[in-house]
Write a structure and sequence with these properties.
This protein has 129 residues and is α+β, with helices and mostly antiparallel strands. Helix content is 47%, strand content 22%. Strand 3 and strand 4 (90-95) form a beta hairpin. Helix 4 (61-68) packs antiparallel against helix 7 (108-126).
């Protein structure tokens, strides 16, 4: 991850950034930047098998750039968060769509990219067994 960031900051052109990202992302087109194990904190001190709560921060700097060119505030919302939590009735996946965040800005170019990102994230979530 450190090497990717170093390469991104050294890149001179958008094409360089795109190429770096193509070499880093998996089949989903996204990268996991961080993983927070909220369950370890929420269930601290409890015994037995506790349900898991994991927060993933995922994205792609190239996609963020394409949105932020039109709506700079998109940088506040990207990368996105996916929450995976176990409950009595099963595992739940939560994700706030980027298009809903950017809709208030009424910029069709940014919304187009946001919808593409949402489709990528939803495709990733649908592939989880």
């Amino acid at each position: 991850m450190d090497e990717m960031w170093q390469n991104l900051f050294k890149a001179d052109t958008v094409a360089d950034v795109e190429e770096i990202m193509r070499s880093c992302v998996g089949s989903s087109g996204l990268i996991e930047f961080f993983r927070f194990n909220h369950g370890d904190i929420v269930h601290k001190g409890k015994t037995g098998g506790m349900p898991g709560i994991i927060r993933l921060v995922v994205g792609n700097p190239s996609i963020m750039r394409r949105m932020a060119e039109h709506v700079p505030d998109a940088g506040s919302y990207a990368p996105v968060t996916i929450l995976i939590d176990e409950r009595l009735d099963g595992v739940h996946l939560s994700y706030d769509r980027m298009a809903s965040f950017l809709a208030t800005y009424k910029n069709e170019e940014a919304l187009k990219v946001a919808r593409e990102l949402d489709a990528m994230v939803e495709g990733l979530l649908a592939s989880i067994d």
